[in-house]
Write a structure and sequence with these properties.
Chain lengths: ~110, ~150
Amino acid sequence: MDIKTEHTEGITVLFIREDRLDANNSEELKVELHRLFDTGTKDLILDLKEILFIDSSGLGVLVSGYKNASTVHGSLKLSNLQSQVRSMFELTRLHRVFDIFTTVDDALQSYN
Amino acid sequence: MNKLSMTGKCMKNDIDIDITIPSHTRYLRMIGTIGEKVAQEIDCPEAIRETLPSQLAVVLTEGLVNAIKHAKSAAPDEEIHVRINVSNKNLVVRIYDNGIGFDLDAIPAPCFTSSGLEEKGRGIFILKSLMDTVKYTRANGGNVLVMEKKLA
């Protein structure tokens, strides 16, 4: 999985550079999120701008990351949900669980 | 050995497509794309037509993953048979697997609150939400997931 990582004032931002997050590739993201929260990361933003398609496995990995963040009293926030992704969040009510922002900058500002 | 074959005939809302696909998640993109393209050709009310391509992509993806993972196919080179049938009345997707199967009705709806959040358990809920009927029964020595959506 192609992931670009940036660090801004203690916040880790992961840009997922894939057009899909599904049962074929989501396990890699699950492992990476677990590794990050297990090695000191507290606050993390996942930018999903390039994800055009997500399935239940992809949603499950985001939930897994959300739980990883909760365990270390940190946070996992999301930005740039495309229309299919947003529809899947709404269908599964996960838009009520996650903090979702229009842009990475909006997500970063929420930590101020 | 992996084998991929597809036959089909397409007329106005008289679509019958058979796909035989290896039991592997690497084919999810392909099956989703086929679903999108088929849905774009369906003549149906505007309200359905707008969302049908992405919905059919999701339904085929979730159904295939279900057949691959949850039906516990015995052999890694197992094949999965997908049939998409469209008439003026409805869209029917059938996904056949040779696994041991599971009880569709025994799978609970996912918990929607953050305190009871689970990683798994949304696939069947998504299928039931997007389609009008979802059934999983024994067929031809294996199982078939039959999902129907009314188009009129």
